[in-house]
Amino acid sequence: MRSLPEFLLEKLKSTNPDAVFTGNMPKIYSSTGENYFVKAGSPSENEQYMGEAQSLEAMGHAAPGLVPKVFSYGADTNGSPYFISEYKNMTGLTEEAAEILAKRLAVELHQYKSQRGFGFEVPTYCGATRQKNGWHDTWEKCYDALIGNLLEGLSKKGYEDLVGLGEEVRNSVIPKLLGQLNIQPVLLHGDLWSGNVGVDSSTGQPVIFDPSSYYGHNEADLAIARIFGGFPESFYAAYHRHYPKAEPVSQHSLRVELYELYHYLNHTLLFGVSRYLNKLSLEGAGL
């Protein structure tokens, strides 16, 4: 825990001029009853802070209250980034909250469309992995770029056999499964696993945080949730009651595996050979 620098105290005062602030970063208390999440980083983390803040801002517009509200972000005079948002005390996801979350994703977040195509205007980070983002006119091109970025990183670490399989996926599976989809670019959380989901203890409502957003196929947002667990089956059923599976529905399970691939590869890039990677079967997707 760190004490609050004067620079950030001034930022908090501009957010809440009548308050007196106490506590240590990241949790700061105010005399008016609000709690704030405050963090600061090094200049090398500027992109990461910017990506998180702009992801949360976009999601806050799409689904108010589903994410912590962002009050301020930017950099100090030395170029070191900072970030100030609501602090929410959270408990684990319950089945009831999971079904509420599923509905809010389906009817709010995943209805928020981009006018610029698939992608995002700034880089975002899935874990420590930098997603280059930018804009693409099709989902096929966007997802190909996301996978290609991971394969580039894996190649640098010597995973040549894995990269070879990945290139086959890019050349064969992605065009086959994604090229025919008729979908809109909708806002995604991007890293929706159980560690980035909770329940606001004061309201009982679900909250999602630590995003790596971009505009893509809504079904991709459910992929990492399946890999790491923590979501009841009723979550998926509730989601698809409000947002039906894309056509062709017969290929939905293959798309699920393809979207899971991103997170399997990213896990391997970040942590080494992954026990999860062995669970992925590419045979059904045409390899």
TrEMBL record:
Describe the reaction catalysed, as an equation.
N(6)-D-ribulosyl-L-lysyl-[protein] + ATP = N(6)-(3-O-phospho-D-ribulosyl)-L-lysyl-[protein] + ADP + H(+)
Q: Which domain of life is it from?
A: Eukaryota
Enzyme Commission (EC) number: 2.7.1.172
As one GO molecular function, the record gives: kinase activity
Q: Which UniProt keywords apply?
A: Kinase, Transferase
Family of the protein in this entry: Belongs to the fructosamine kinase family.
Name used for this protein in its record: protein-ribulosamine 3-kinase
This protein's species is Macrolepiota fuliginosa MF-IS2
